[in-house]
Amino acid sequence: MRNINFICCISAKHKSPEYKEVLRCIREDICDISDIWPNVSWNAPIEYQIEMGQNLETQIIILKNAFTVLDFVKIKTNLMDMEVKYSMNNNRLFNLNPGFIDGEGMFLITHKPNFERGRTFIGGGLWMEQQYIILNNQLSYCNNTFSEYLNKKRLKQFNKLFPKVILTAKKAETAIGASS
Q1: Extended strands (E) in the chain
Q2: pLDDT score, position 1
Q3: d(CA 156, CA 137)
Q4: DSSP state, 12?
Q5: Where are the domains of the chain?
Q6: pTM
Q7: What are phi and psi for residue 113, nearest 5 degrees?
């Protein structure tokens, strides 16, 4: 099954020169970008507001290439390096989180172990955590959904992508069945 891969960018300054540089680095260091969704305002937890400022927004960057879960070890490392590179006074300007949608839901990749949240170790010091589950052939919120993904507009956008994952899986199953 082909995953739909994305990066969630959280920032207060999506129009800054640093943001354009982050997009350039994603294209050069990870892969080309197939789509960038409009910004959605986010009522961020206080720790994000202290570090990154108020009036934070999220933006989803859809990546062109398909990756395995293990590829995310390198991707997350690259993104964490970008966060450090584009920081001011030891505060990040951007929080960059890779993730993917597959036939089981939507997952984020993190370097923070938090076993109470049900994170699954994937290797290289990284864990994945489910943000949306599948109910009635659609993505839906789950108990652990982060606040930046509880936005109805954001869920609707991810649900528009979800049929592509299922269609790709069915094409692969048909191809395997035809070759048997």
Answers
A1: 4-11, 33-36, 40-41, 57-63, 87-88, 91-92, 94-102, 105-110, 120-123, 126-135, 138-141
A2: 45
A3: 13
A4: S
A5: 4-179
A6: 0.84
A7: -75, 130
